[in-house]
Design a protein that fits this description.
alpha+beta; hypothetical protein yedk fold; 5-stranded antiparallel sheet
Length: 270
């Protein structure tokens, strides 16, 4: 897992081929899960003030720490003001609804966008060119399929530091004329940590690329796509968590508290 002696390295640029040491209870977890929803829950446990300070942003909408953020819920995103040198934090719906959509129903299926095809998929291609954002987080969850059961894991960067998913956003006008703003998290191939659990992972942007990613004047899709690489595996760790995360109503620190694998297995079959 993450070695603090490495310091605060940038998240991208590593080849992801080094295999981190596994925590106790994880040594036998070698089954790779495929075709499960990618990045369907995540955590942002920092207060709004800390998020704004980290991302050098301002925002009027309030935010309370969350440990089990789920699709279609309002989530913080950070965008660049197109007229002033200012990053702005606001809440949008998680699950992108393209401006041309007939209704909101498809948004729940568009919580993620594959970075390899976003430039050509109608729902995402304009957003990749013109409407990029940062989606703050300090952890995300994935499930590993073990037989008929699914074991949840929490993934962190630098032992739980804040980071940003690469996000796309759009806005759609409802029948009453109100604008609904929404977002999607870009995904990529997994690094060595994520591949033990899932065949995809969310794109975690290098902090040095925030300005370029957010720049409204940067419309070069190829240049934007070049930023969408797996996070350096040496900066990441994952650990099993309880099945509390499976229920949206559970939203507290216990959702991401590490548990022994034997304990989670007992919970699955009790």
């Amino acid at each position: 897992m993450y070695n603090s002696a490495l310091g605060r390295k940038s998240c991208q640029g590593g080849n992801g081929l080094s295999t981190p040491k596994r925590a106790a209870g994880q040594r036998n977890l070698l089954v790779i899960c495929h075709n499960l929803p990618m990045c369907g829950r995540y955590r942002l446990s920092r207060r709004k003030q800390l998020v704004e300070e980290y991302f050098d942003s301002v925002g009027e909408e309030d935010w309370s720490p969350r440990y089990n953020i789920a699709p279609t819920q309002p989530v913080p995103v950070i965008r660049q003001n197109p007229k002033e040198p200012r990053r702005e934090l606001s809440l949008v719906r998680w699950g992108l609804v393209p401006f041309w959509a007939k209704d909101l129903s498809g948004g729940a299926k568009m919580i993620n966008a594959r970075s390899e095809t976003a430039a050509t998929v109608p729902a995402f291609r304009d957003a990749l060119k013109l409407r990029r954002c940062l989606i703050p987080a300090d952890g995300f969850y994935e499930w590993q399929k073990t037989g008929k059961a699914k074991q949840p894991y929490c993934f962190e960067v630098n032992d739980g530091e804040l980071f940003a998913f690469a996000g796309l956003w759009d806005r759609w006008k409802d029948p009453s004329g109100q604008w609904v703003k929404s977002c999607s998290i870009l995904t990529t191939t997994p690094n060595a940590v994520a591949s033990a659990i899932h065949d995809r992972m969310p794109v975690i942007l290098d902090r040095t690329n925030f300005d370029l990613w957010l720049d409204p004047g940067m419309t070069n899709v190829e240049a934007a796509s070049d930023l969408l690489k797996p996070c350096d595996a040496q900066l990441m760790r994952c650990y099993p968590v309880s099945n509390r995360i499976n229920h949206v109503a559970n939203d507290d620190a216990a959702c991401s508290t590490p548990v022994e694998f034997a304990e989670t297995q007992a919970g699955l079959f009790s």
